[in-house]
Fold each of these.
Amino acid sequence: MAQIFHRSTNTISRLSIFGALFIVAGILWAMAEIQRSPYTTYAGVVRPQPVMFSHQHHVGGLGIDCRYCHTSVETSSFAGIPPTKTCINCHAQIWTNAALLEPVRESFRSGRSLVWNRVNDLPDFVYFDHSIHINKGVGCDTCHGPVDRMPLMFNYASLQMEWCLDCHHICAPGKKFSTCATSRPQKMPRSRSMASSSRTRNRWGWHW
Ligand code: HEC
Ligand code: HEC
Ligand code: HEC
Ligand code: HEC
């Protein structure tokens, strides 16, 4: 019987099977990259807010302590977002006519809270507690980056499980945090201060 297919088709079919493997691998790789990219994690992406509140001005410039506004960060899982009253403490006297602050005054007059858009937002099934991390000496900027230089807030880390685990692997319970902090200098920037004006050293030798 005559050959239906020419011999060369053998090569072609082998090549196309091989090629398909590469294409599948390529697609999987691309999906993994997209899953980790800012496109999905929003890392580094500024979120719109009802008021152009600047951490750079208030923390970097004025030196207000993080805990003045994020009052529960050392004692509970939730860091806390300041109520309008905290802003009015100063803004009843400073910048009282600024248009930028009208939403703040309006919120104070009406008693309706400002609705800030969440920046760092873990899925609900993840259990995260600020107080344990703060009490173990992990500085705010290890996780949140150079907040005192952020005119508008963005999330610094991916907040993906890989990120939690990366640190937990080297900082396993019982290990001294100082050991893991110095073993990974690039991944864990030295903490600066909670209040840039009053720098202190905690027992890990970090500033915050
Ligand atoms: C004068 C008050 C004030 C001070 C001081 C302050 N913050 Fe904030 N912070 C806010 C307000 C208001 C928001 C919500 C608006 C926004 O996201 O920018 C916020 C948001 C944040 C967020 C994002 C919250 C989210 O939705 O995920 C982080 C992280 C944060 N602050 C960290 C810090 C750190 C770290 C410091 C100290 C270095 C600090 N803040 C000092 C008022 C303050
Ligand atoms: C301890 C006093 C203090 C507190 C508390 C405070 N501010 Fe301010 N704020 C200032 C001062 C001082 C300026 C002027 C900063 C400058 O021009 O350097 C300012 C400026 C601003 C501006 C103008 C834009 C800018 O960043 O220069 C906005 C908007 C603002 N504050 C919003 C807020 C909000 C919202 C809160 C509450 C979450 C708040 N502030 C809490 C002192 C305060
Ligand atoms: C170990 C990493 C880590 C450290 C250290 C850390 N944070 Fe956070 N922070 C997070 C994560 C993760 C979230 C998102 C929590 C969520 O979605 O439930 C968050 C959320 C926040 C929020 C939004 C409100 C909330 O509690 O969900 C604020 C404000 C905040 N952090 C401020 C601070 C301040 C101020 C410090 C230092 C005193 C600090 N954080 C230290 C990881 C950290
Ligand atoms: C920069 C390092 C770092 C990052 C990032 C980090 N952690 Fe931690 N975590 C620690 C340290 C240090 C401890 C305290 C461990 C000890 O000494 O017991 C801790 C403890 C914990 C504990 C308590 C464990 C216990 O012993 O009860 C939980 C839960 C936790 N982390 C969840 C998270 C989650 C969820 C994330 C990510 C969203 C995260 N952590 C990110 C450093 C980190």
Amino acid sequence: MGATIDNLLSPGLERSCDELNSNDLTESVLNGDASMQDKTVELIWNALDNFHIELPSWGFADTGTRFGKFTQAAAATTLEGKFSDAAHVHAATGACPTLALHVQWDLPNGLKDVPEVQDLARRFAIRAGSINPNVFQNQDYKYGSVGNPDPAIRRMAIRHIVECIAISGALASRDVSPWFADGSNYPGTQNIRKRIGYFEEGLAEIHAALKPGQRLLIEYKPFEPAFYHTDIADWGMAVLLAKAAGPQSFVLVDTGHHYQSQNIEQIVAWLLHKNMMGGFHFNDRRYADDDLTLGSIDPYQIFRIFHEIRIFEWEHQCSADIAYMVDQSNNLKVKIEEMIQTACTAQELYAKAALVNHEQLAKLQQHCSLVDAEETLRGAFWQDVRPAIQAWRKRQGLPEDPMQAFRTSGYLERITSQRGKKKRGGLASYA
Ligand SMILES: [Mn+2]
């Protein structure tokens, strides 16, 4: 562990807002301040060199709302299609080298499907990412999975997640991230404490199956589909269960899984402080778990989360071991375009967070210079990082405009025609 806040501080530092604002990239360019511009570009490039965000395989398939779904001719119907689509997003952005897999949808035969996934990963140069068990879809899970009062159902759920750990091991992917829909809809219908015990027991057994280096990421959600109580409803419950499970267990923060107005970056700060921050499922929302495109509603929220991570890393002089993943469900935008938009937005917001002057901020916080501290944060957020990101892309041999490059590649037209024909053919056979 490196420098602490205290030994980074030097007394008597107070800067005016005007001085702080002179850090603005646009202004420094206008003033011909080449060194400031170079430093800003260097910060952004270093940040992007080390920033990756994992795409969800289900983001390329036809998914929808609980009221129905609007299908797209170009949506992937096979795992090969999902890998191929993900490879195009990565080729356009350079930010998405891994694909999260959902066992029930992508590996319906479990371990037997591993060779096919390995083959696809090689062919498309996209690595298998986090493995997502499914203990919420089968009819057996009507009253819960690991929290079900029926020991046979609990056993079935545990066995499934243990198999997912084996799949993850075989694919050399690191994280297994179960989400539990477990809960109840009416007061008095379930014993909440008994179910806590089932989760403690079940997760400990699951944890025991982890090999060295593997991680179990526990995701929480306050409500939906359960509307009275959810067994893992918030980050505190997730931390306690992860701690009870064992040292390779961490918490997964899905940005859509919070009550309105909850301070998510504070949760992130706590998880970092307690060394329990495992990963993110990024998405945006206006009301509940809306699964909208990252940064589409509140980009400042995502920036603030990235800032908490960056300042933690600066204080500890290390990089936090966090899996950045996308978990979105979009059925209106063109799916691949939405993923390119997501990856680019994530890069922009991460780059902005990299521009916060941590040394200056620490001093201002220590002196309770409220306006100046806040302006230090806001100043970074409002910088236009896009020219520097464009330059980074050029240096990486990536297209300078990822969306434009994708649109001119002809890929969308090709898959729309090929997959559309197959789908129409499929429907025709029922006629
Ligand atoms: Mn999620």
Amino acid sequence: MPTATKDSTFNLKLCGACAAKITFIFMESGKRMPVDWPPQKKIILVNGRGVLVDSFRPHWVSCTESNRFRATRNRQLKLWS
Ligand SMILES: [Zn+2]
């Protein structure tokens, strides 16, 4: 994939709970979102034209230990920061 996002452009980390490779995305709101690595390639339509984009899945969707994270938000932030 010549257009693949380079690992070096993201600060990759390992999830503190399940040890999966994750990275953080800054949301429009300014909050950091832990997401699965690597991103998926997707095509979106902008003004009727296809544009290739990176699509990230929030890590709490796939994390095998996500139940632990949902217990308290504060704990979640500690594990993932
Ligand atoms: Zn995890």
Amino acid sequence: MPSANPTSPPEQNPTAVATRPITDPDRYSRQVLFPGIGAAGQHLLAGAHVAIVGVGATGAASASLLARAGVGTLSLIDRDFVEPSNLHRQVLFDEADALASLPKAEAARRKILLFNSSIRVLPHVVDLVPANIHDLLSGVHLVLDATDNFETRFLINDFAVQGTVPWIYAAAIGATAATMNILPRPPRSGNLPQPTRLPQPSHVPHLPGSQEPVPLPDAWQPTACLACLFPAPPAGPVETCDTAGILSTAVNLAASIQVTEALKLLTGQPHLLRRTLLSFDLWQPTLSSGLSHSEVSATAPDPDCLVCGHRIFAHLAGEGRPHITLCGRNSVQIHEHHRPVDLAAMHLRLSRHADTNPKMHPDTPADIQDLRSNDLLLRFRRGPLTLTLFGDGRAVIQGTSDIAVARTLYARFIGS
Ligand SMILES: [Zn+2]
């Protein structure tokens, strides 16, 4: 039987067209059409290296967006494993990941490579601590915060200010999303580290909708750092998504703003960056209430800031961290003497998640079991782990000798 197309080799596989490698022009054509990015911006993104600290809800969403946008190298840092309760908001994970308790950094790498195999993804299944932060973050162009605790954010802030590396804070809790760009002030003099060299544009980009070239500043104008706005981590128990709940839409808004700011920076347009601590409450119906949207100026560094003003890096030196010790063969103790706990209030807060809650739907599995407290201590069980909390903020987690597992349980239910 003659071929329909006499020029085609008769043995050609009719599905061959589907196996043609996907090229960059195929993949990024619609993004390159956007005048703020263009071909030059796309080229810069391919040469960029971004670290994402925390690959939970915000981190997974930001990693997905950056990978699809074509950022050439992503370092993904997370100490945690995928659980079923992650699936409603953590966009890179599926049921198989949760059933296998796959580490989030590795699960994210596998998913990303399914939709963009042309970039590099470096997973790190570790807790970011002062001892490893230089190894993990040195050389990156930008750090994205997607953690769930201020302890790690202040550590990132110390590192970023010391090395003049830009970073972007992001947080989501309940229906609220917040972000802030931190462009550290370079050191004034001496043999201190020089600012991170961002990929440099070869063409002057145009603002969207404009044909006029935009003059580029030589470098970014420094903003406030995290410690300028928050000289100390919040005192007392901090609500987390495990105690206050969270909407996946708030997560995705925080990630969308964070990644958009990242794209501006990585394409050499720091003058377009927001210079405020920006927060949205997606549950409030109108802007006129004044509650749904707020911006706090972060335009300039505070000259009295201990971190960016006086260059004292207490968190990098390990001074801001709770003291953690292994005690016995199968338990971890977290000392937080500086933060007393109201045990009765904590009991009330946790009772919503306990199997003793009479309002809990019978089909809803409780997050914690056997919640009990008295004047001296509070105790609950979660799977094989038992957490005992004392009035001075000290906690003992029995059932593990893994500090990361103990810290995760503590951060999720007691606060960071
Ligand atoms: Zn500062």
